[in-house]
Design goal:
- It is built from 21 helices and eight strands.
- With 674 residues, the protein is an alpha+beta fold.
- The chain has a four-stranded mixed beta sheet, with helices on one face. Strands 6-5-4-8 form a four-stranded antiparallel beta sheet, with helices on both faces.
- Helix 13 runs antiparallel to helix 14.
- The two termini are 21 Å apart.
């Protein structure tokens, strides 16, 4: 209830801050009842001033603003408590639950009984609907010959903790000897607020698999959730010694250092936490402490194409540098420009279709986000890799970022200067032509010498001289410019491929193609015909053909199939989806939907026993990072090169080891579990 109350408070604060723009910053204190009432009045006033059209638009999107009747009534003390819990750096110490955790030590022979007892206690906290749906999912995994345990991890990542608890608990009961499943179940228990029940399992695993970074991290997070900061720090340090950039252990270390007031150490730990496991939550944590994340702080393992559209293949007719080739070159250029224009016309038709598709998808996505927000759900507002790409790749294209025209004015300056210089060359040519006219004025006519061959030669010489100077300088400037355009267009497209939705990227790609064709078509080329005194016949020019663009396809796509859950990682696409063979999972099937921070090591189970850790890194295919917004990062599959193409990881040998994320409240859907 408090979670939804805080969401409502944030909505009201947004309205309040909008109405109070003259205030430079938000209050650090929680709102009081009186302030909440004032904010509600302001909001209702703003709603009352909305036009009928705006109200109908909101109704059509299913957006219902809260009213004074629907807002939970809480005292000032309750609001302060909720505010403090939300902003507490580390949890308060919980002596009662710590005592429970320390009182239990499980021998390996007793794991089966302990898991069964714990699972029965968990089932009491789940609704009948959740248990029914969980049983249905379990039955489907058997029917589909999918891993129930891996499916449970997928449910967890997808924000369905109650279903994940049910399925993983059943998987552990069915095979209590599977230590990886036990580790993951303990991780789920911790993140749901039952740290005292998770620790006995983790302590047993730690004895059987010492120096395992995943197990030790999960012990770290359990003690942190119980508020025993000293023990949490001890285990965090141990994890970091094994795995210096462990995403979750470093996050815990950062919280502990921050709680001590040691901000430089906290920043250092958060930087290590985000290096191989990016999330906006971590970035915001650093920003709050005054550190702006840098590109070099993040790893990036996606291959970057040198020439995404294949612009380097495009060629155009030669610039005529003497009058002998002028006529043929002029025809080639006219044909080339006509072909470019035809291609541009075709692309503009596709551009209009892409614009409509983008508008339709964008409107639907905005509506989905707004409706989800009304229900307290979360829908990804931008592509999965966008936040990371903006930080990692953004600095590399700062000079061109936002350049939707793909025309680079600064780099075009040498071309402009070269074109301006042509005026002087024309002046020089005209002066020399005048001199030739005067030279031969009295030598041409009936009964005169008529040195036509000499006149032809002299006039061709000055015209060729003009072509060499004019076209030579312009061609050189254009060559330099188009080399830059080709490189920076590729950089921009690579950036956009990770920061834009596919339909928007399609529009961007078409815009880049139109821009390239327009620019190469509009090159200024100067032509000079041979002297009219000449009698030789020009040679025909060669036929040319406009090249085709390369398809800008993502060069790295990985698919990880975790039971009935599939994670697809490509460029802008970072998604998880279920395939239960017709069984639907509706959000209403869950007692409480929610997402938790954490990581999952995905790899092949052959070659090692127990939960995966960095000590068996060669067997780890990918590191999946997730937080309260969903999956935020997927590290590249180990050993996969850019030329390997699409990579799929699936089958019975796939092992998924969950690393618990930090908990600052120490409470969850299993709080007060007996």
């Amino acid at each position: 209830m408090k979670k939804y109350f805080l969401l409502t408070v944030l909505i009201l604060l947004t309205f309040h801050l909008s109405a109070q723009k003259q205030k430079s910053k938000q209050k650090e204190e929680p709102p009081t009842q009186a302030e909440m009432a004032d904010m509600m009045k302001e909001m209702e006033k703003a709603m009352g001033e909305m036009s009928p059209e705006d109200k109908r638009a909101m109704d059509s999107m299913g957006i219902k603003m809260p009213s004074a009747i629907t807002i939970p009534q809480m005292t000032d003390a309750q609001m302060r408590e909720a505010y403090e819990n939300e902003n507490r750096i580390v949890p308060l110490k919980d002596p009662a639950r710590i005592k429970t955790a320390l009182a239990v030590s499980i021998p390996t022979a007793g794991i089966n009984a302990y898991v069964d007892k714990t699972h029965q206690a968990v089932l009491k906290k789940l609704s009948p609907a959740a248990k029914t749906k969980g049983a249905e999912i379990l039955q489907q995994t058997v029917k589909l010959k999918s891993s129930a345990a891996n499916t449970a991890v997928g449910l967890w990542m997808d924000g369905k903790p109650t279903l994940a608890l049910y399925v993983m608990g059943e998987a552990c009961k069915a095979n209590p000897s599977n230590t990886n499943n036990l580790n993951n179940y303990a991780s789920f228990l911790t993140m749901c607020g039952a740290e005292q029940l998770a620790l006995p399992i983790l302590n047993n695993l730690n004895k059987r698999h010492p120096r395992n970074s995943s197990i030790i991290n999960n012990i770290t997070q359990a003690w942190l959730g119980l508020g025993d900061i000293a023990k949490a720090e001890k285990y965090a340090d141990s994890t970091i010694r094994i795995h210096p950039t462990h995403p979750q252990a470093n996050m815990a270390k950062g919280l502990i250092e921050e709680s001590k007031g040691n901000i430089p150490a906290a920043i250092a730990a958060y930087k290590k936490a985000i290096r191989k496991g990016f999330s906006t939550e971590k970035e915001n944590k650093l920003k709050k402490l005054g550190y702006d994340l840098k590109s070099d702080d993040l790893t990036w393992d996606r291959p970057m194409p040198q020439d995404a559209l294949g612009l380097g293949k495009f060629t155009w007719p030669e610039y005529p540098l003497d009058v002998e080739k002028n006529k043929a070159a002029e025809k080639e250029w006219n044909d080339f420009k006509n072909e470019c224009q035809q291609k541009i016309n075709d692309l503009q038709i596709n551009q209009k279709k892409a614009e409509q598709e983008y508008l339709t998808r964008s409107t639907a996505r905005t509506q989905q986000i707004l409706q989800a927000g009304q229900k307290g759900q979360y829908v990804q507002p931008m592509p999965g890799y966008a936040a990371k790409a903006i930080k990692k790749l953004g600095p590399g294209i700062n000079d061109v970022n936002g350049n939707a025209s793909f025309v680079f004015a600064k780099e075009l300056e040498p071309v402009t200067k070269a074109l301006l210089a042509v005026g002087n060359y024309e002046k020089q040519k005209n002066e020399k032509q005048k001199a030739i006219d005067e030279k031969y004025e009295d030598k041409v006519g009936e009964g005169k010498a008529n040195p036509l061959e000499a006149i032809c030669k002299d006039e061709n010489a000055i015209r060729t001289e003009f072509l060499v100077k004019a076209n030579g300088g312009v061609q050189s400037a254009y060559k330099q410019y188009f080399n830059y355009v080709r490189r920076r267009t590729s950089d921009l497209l690579y950036y956009c491929q990770y920061t834009q939705w596919p339909e928007q990227f399609e529009l961007t790609k078409i815009s880049a193609q139109i821009s390239w064709l327009t620019q190469i078509k509009d090159q200024r080329v100067f032509f000079e015909s041979k002297s009219s005194w000449c009698t030789s016949v020009p040679k025909p020019g060669k036929e040319g053909k406009l090249q085709n663009f390369d398809d800008v396809a993502c060069q790295y796509v990985s698919t990880m199939k975790l039971g009935a859950y599939k994670i697809t990682s490509s460029c802008s696409n970072l998604t998880g989806e279920f395939d239960f063979g017709g069984v639907n999972i509706n959000v209403n099937d869950n007692v409480e939907t929610g997402r938790f921070s954490g990581s999952a090591m995905v790899g092949a189970s052959k070659g090692f026993d127990g939960p995966a850790g960095t000590e068996v890194e060669a067997s780890i295919a990918a590191l999946v990072e997730f937080d309260n917004t969903g999956i935020t990062d997927v590290g590249a599959i180990v050993g996969v090169t850019a030329s390997a193409g699409n990579v799929t990881l699936a089958g019975a040998d796939v092992k998924v080891t969950v690393n618990t994320g930090v908990s600052r409240s120490g409470k969850g859907i299993l709080q007060d579990i007996n």
